[in-house]
Amino acid sequence: MEKTKITNNVFIPMPVVLVGANVDGKANFMAVGWVSRVNLNPPMIAVGINKAHYTHHGILENKTFSVCVPDCSMVQKTDYCGVKSGKTVDKSKVFQVFYGETKTAPMAQECPLCMECNLVQTLDLPSNTLFLGEIVGAYADEKCLTSGKPDTKKIDPFLLSMPHNHYFSIGNDIAQAWNIGLEIKP
What we know:
mainly beta; three-stranded antiparallel beta sheet; 3 helices; globular
């Protein structure tokens, strides 16, 4: 199939999460699409955050942050946390806040899955900072687990698609990872 070169080369569906950080002693959350697990043992996750964001300051201040996975029913509140800045509005009341081991990484009780992280490393990029965190605690709603493990379908996360800026729910299970490819015989 013929390929067409596109001018905006940032298209990639991104999972939407809420990143939590205490800023000047108050819980704050922001919507983030630039997030990925980056290491298995110890478990690590990375988030890319613009240097001008309020949450950026809180992560550097406390050396901790949380990554909370909202479900599709939370799209409006999640978007609100992305379009409003903690510099001008108090987002500490948007969710019921709880803390785990770190005591400084606020998590949203309403999210089916939350992870608290200790900051391990930062990578300074032109407009953003890539924060690398070690996951020191993970918390899930019992109803979102299957055999004790988080179940994507039950969590019901959503994706952000850029550059047209729309949220999408996740579709059907299509194959077993690290297995379906074994059916190909050279």
